[in-house]
Amino acid sequence: MSNKVNIFWFRRDLRLEDNRGFYKALHGKHPVLPIFIFDSEILDELPKNDPRVSFISERLQKMQQSLKDHDSGIAVYQGTPEAVFKQITSEYTIANVITNHDYESYSLVRDSEVQTLLESKGIGFYTYKDQVIFEKDEVVKSDGTPYVVYTPYMKTWKSQFKTAVDLKNYDCKSHFDNLLKGTSLPFLTLEDIGFEKSDIRVPDFDISPATIKNYQATRNFPSVEGTSHLGPHLRFGTISIREAVRKAISEKNEIFWQELIWREFFMQILWHFPKTVNNAFRKKYDLIEWRNNEKEFEKWKSGKTGYPLVDAGMRELNKSGYMHNRVRMLVASFLCKHLLIDWRWGEAYFAEKLLDYEQASNVGNWQWAAGSGVDAAPYFRIFNPTTQIEKFDKDHIYIKKWIPEYGTDQYPEQLVDHKMARERCLKVYKEAVSQHIV
């Protein structure tokens, strides 16, 4: 048994710089052993070539190389977190385990179980806010209740930000002398955990001055490279939210800044209303009689609905793990309202495919599309998937990129008539809403 160490547990914060929890660990009085756990509870549900797992593995290798330069390393394990900590506590004398907050439903249960185990062994468990600027109930109404509409939340967020936020850059690297030195640590590769390298790559993020400056003008057009691709990097913490906000402020782009606030809005909704993962926020929408036609769902998934902008979006998702945000709104609305397929089916498919999948945003946006969520579009707002082309891809550049057979007799006929589907949707939704008893 060695002298006491502190463990820093990397999760959704895969970076060695501007990492609040890591910074706090490095300021403790014991050497720091960094670890990462490939959680078997999560891995067992994923395909063996999942691009997100590839991305995590590659990121860990980069972190490992940087730590080697300081005669240290990161220990990478596989298993349930509880089992892994049982192993680690048998190998080291641990004073504390430090990590950053995670807010998703599974994470809360996992952390509670780990904390119980550690406390039974006299080990401290400390977590810090790192992946958001404001969390939980830090931005609420004057009466203490949560905001359920974005705009007033955003205004209060900004008001509090101006007076109460320090966008400190947590300089971890200056304190690497407090890392555990010269120890041979387990480091599991992608192959070691039974996965293979994916052909899908996570694109680098772009928060250059030009991208942020032009963001408002270009972000709605899927054929234009006008988005930052920050999503996966915020999801896995390869960039800190503080750096992203600092950049938005320095370039004075309110729209870009507000997109970052949307993410926190949905996170606090999930925190206050965890049941929205499986249930409509507006309960009356759980009374909708979904058609849930499995054949139509398969055609939607594969991009063969006969509606080009919908199909291009789904094919982009399947091929790249990404879909332009404007198109996401359309394909989600189409599934829920044109096909009357439960939003939970779509949410689950996006969770399987999206590189930037975050539970709070995914659930929030799908409920928005279905009309059942907070700040939702009214149920009678039904996007016309044909006129959307004229607005956002009038030259068909995006469509032709993802649908090579577009304009030929190989392209499928429309799965459903828009006018008929719209009328059917209105009828079904109206019946559901009228049945609701407050």
UniProtKB/TrEMBL annotation:
Keywords: Chromophore, FAD, Flavoprotein, Lyase. Residues 4-133 form the Photolyase/cryptochrome alpha/beta domain. FAD binds at residues 215, 256, 259-266. PROSITE patterns: DNA_PHOTOLYASES_1_1, DNA_PHOTOLYASES_1_2, PHR_CRY_ALPHA_BETA. The keyword Lyase applies. Its cofactor is FAD; (6R)-5,10-methylene-5,6,7,8-tetrahydrofolate. GO terms for molecular function: deoxyribodipyrimidine photo-lyase activity; DNA binding; FAD binding. The record marks 290, 343, 366 as: Electron transfer via tryptophanyl radical. Binds 1 FAD per subunit. SUPFAM superfamilies: Cryptochrome/photolyase FAD-binding domain (SSF48173), Cryptochrome/photolyase, N-terminal domain (SSF52425). GO terms for biological process: nucleobase-containing compound metabolic process; response to light stimulus; response to stress. It comes from the Bacteria. Belongs to the DNA photolyase family. This is Deoxyribodipyrimidine photo-lyase. It comes from Ulvibacter antarcticus.
